[in-house]
Design goal:
The chain has two domains: 162 residues, 3-Layer(aba) Sandwich (Rossmann fold); 146 residues, 3-Layer(aba) Sandwich (Rossmann fold). By secondary structure, the chain is an alpha/beta fold.
Length: 323
């Protein structure tokens, strides 16, 4: 089925990650649709959709970082404006699902904010959600509307294969990522190792053992995100002590904090950190000051292909059947 990209669907962007939205539009061969977004002096957000959306299939790209509170409120307002403009269907595209780490009640009297965000998206008027590498797969169950989860795996695998590492081994920096690491190791036909860790604070981690042999190996460490760099730093230090020849860390999301920026500037254990553009690099962050190589891969083509498939009622999951 051939999509008429000129008028069958439209794509809007919030202000959280306009660079990625532009790349997605370029991949689709279209221009981003016009929307006026501004802030009143008291901090309130306002938007006006500047072209008709009546009867159209509408996609809105807005990452949940940086500034997740502002990003989400802006997204809710955009969706409401589109709904009132008689859009036929509204798909909220969240390259990074902010608040994903608050996905369970692990202490007394705490919220499950990831579920709250799902409710708010639905209440605002989203008919469908498209996101990338959720921190916890259970978040899919928080939605009563269709949710499609993309994976950065094809983009990352392509880059890894082009590296031609002599003795690669895939490592999960914690036990929670073992399933993802196993998927990478199977598709790359490499060995697998897992780092056991204990979180000692919001941004501090103690890595205390490695299951597997990394001595003399080129480590491919995979994780869904890093904000403070604690897990990556602790795991890399231990892997070096276990004889790892080189360490290349791959994370989908990079919601870097000030503390994380300071830690990474002192990081001496990894050779390269590879992230995607699901979140723009933190303002004021200078990659040239890092003691290792920072590589940013784009997920724009992946999102663009998913948009076309959703619009044409084709399978999104088939994007990941074989890599």
């Amino acid at each position: 089925m051939k999509t008429n990209v000129n008028d069958s669907f439209v794509v809007f962007s919030g202000t959280a990650n306009p660079a990625l939205a532009e790349k997605v539009a370029n991949c689709l061969g279209i221009q981003l649709s016009k929307i006026d977004i501004k802030r009143f002096p008291d901090g309130e957000s306002f938007c006006q959709v500047q072209e008709t959306v009546r009867g159209k299939d509408v996609f809105v790209i807005q990452s949940g970082s940086p500034n997740p509170n502002d990003a989400y409120m802006e997204l809710f307002i955009i969706i409401d404006a589109l709904k009132r403009g008689s859009a036929a269907r509204i798909t909220a595209i969240l390259p990074y699902y902010g608040y994903a780490r608050q996905d369970r009640k692990d202490q007394p009297r705490v919220p499950i904010t990831a579920k709250l965000i799902a409710n708010l998206l639905t209440t605002a008027g989203a008919d469908r959600v498209l996101t990338l590498d959720l921190h916890a797969n259970q978040i899919q169950g928080f939605f009563d509307i269709p949710l499609d989860q993309l994976h950065a795996e094809p983009v990352i695998l392509k880059y890894i294969r082009e590296m031609h590492l002599p003795r690669p081994i895939v490592v999960s920096p914690d036990t929670g990522g073992a399933k993802t690491a196993h998927s990478y190791s199977r598709k790359l036909n490499t060995g697998l190792a897992i780092v056991a860790k204990q979180r000692t604070g919001d941004s501090t981690v103690d890595a205390f053992s490695v299951v597997g042999d990394v001595n003399g190996c080129d480590v491919i460490m995979v994780d869904d995100m890093t904000a403070t760099g604690g897990t990556l730093s602790a795991a890399a230090k231990l892997l070096r002590a276990q004889g790892a020849k080189s360490i290349h860390a791959f994370v989908t999301h990079f919601p870097l904090t000030q503390k994380g920026m300071e830690r990474l500037q002192d990081e001496a254990y990894i050779d390269e950190l590879v992230v995607t553009d699901s979140i723009p690099l933190r303002e004021g962050f200078d990659p040239s000051k890092l003691p290792f190589k920072l590589t940013v891969l784009s997920v724009a083509e992946l999102i663009a292909e998913a948009i076309k498939r959703i619009h044409d009622n084709e399978s999104v999951n088939s994007l990941f059947v074989s890599n």
